[in-house]
Design brief:
Largest sheet: 8 strands, mixed
Number of helices: 5
Shape: globular
Strand content: 35-45%
Distance between the termini: 34 Å
Helix content: 10-25%
Order of helices and strands: EHEEEHEHEEEHEHEEEEEE
Length: about 240
């Protein structure tokens, strides 16, 4: 019997790009996205834009002399989907649960009280990098430590985008292609704690994925919105179904 997941929540889909700014301008100016925030780290800098309940994270290389993993990813794959991020209440407990299921999380970092994380690699996560994270934003002790200040990694490094479109688009779900759809569905449902919701797997915060049979390597096929003025965004295919 698979041990139950403890409050996984699909938070965002991350897209890797050489330069965030033009894509940010589109996602706000044409899609009506709402900027959540962002910051810088070693090897990359990122910022998030909400499209309804889910968010799109845009990531670009940064400080590549110290870590060039994002630059190498773009050189190898080009712009496009990079990972899905799921938040949990207790990352340490979830790591033990994942190990009990035969998964070996990598790049485990539990030292930062503001953001703890680990990753599942595409070979075990059905073609997509999965980040599992515990955010200090919901921890009273961490909030007290911050004293009302923004988290230490938060900073606006991007230019302000244009005014948002009057009609905001909503990211309905992330469509995953897989040659073994039942196994991929089981992964998102049983391992990552999603609940069946019609044709989709859903999480409490509104994040959803669908899984479709597709030959070839598994992975993110497209982002499905309720409206889309473009066919692609930051290397990801867009659709309304």
């Amino acid at each position: 019997m698979i041990p139950p997941a403890m409050a996984f929540d699909l938070d965002h889909v991350a897209l890797a790009v050489p330069d965030v700014q033009p894509h940010l301008d589109v996602i706000v100016g044409e899609f009506g996205g709402k900027v959540r925030g962002g910051g810088t780290s070693i090897g990359f800098r990122a910022m998030q834009v909400a499209l309804g309940e889910m968010a799109v994270e845009l990531i670009e290389p940064h400080a590549t002399d110290d870590n060039d993993f994002m630059a190498r990813f773009l050189a190898r794959h080009g712009p496009g989907p990079h990972h899905l991020t799921f938040k949990v209440a207790d990352l340490g407990a979830e790591i033990e649960r994942l190990r009990s299921l035969g998964y070996q999380p990598v790049q485990i970092d539990l030292a930062n009280p503001f953001w703890k994380e680990c990753f599942l690699t595409p070979d075990v996560a059905h073609g997509t990098v999965v980040q599992v994270a515990q955010s200090g934003e919901d921890d009273p002790a961490v909030l007290e430590m911050l004293g009302g200040e923004p988290p230490p990694w938060w900073s606006q490094w991007w230019r302000d985008p244009p005014p948002p479109a009057a009609e905001a688009a909503r990211l309905r779900h992330v469509a995953i292609g897989s040659p073994e759809p039942e196994a991929t569905l089981a992964f998102f449902r049983d391992v990552l704690g999603g609940e069946p919701a019609g044709a989709a797997i859903a999480w409490p915060g509104g994040g959803r994925v669908t899984v479709e049979e597709r030959p070839g390597p598994p992975g993110i096929d497209r982002l499905v919105l309720d409206r889309t003025p473009r066919a692609t965004l930051a290397g990801a295919r867009l659709a309304t179904s």
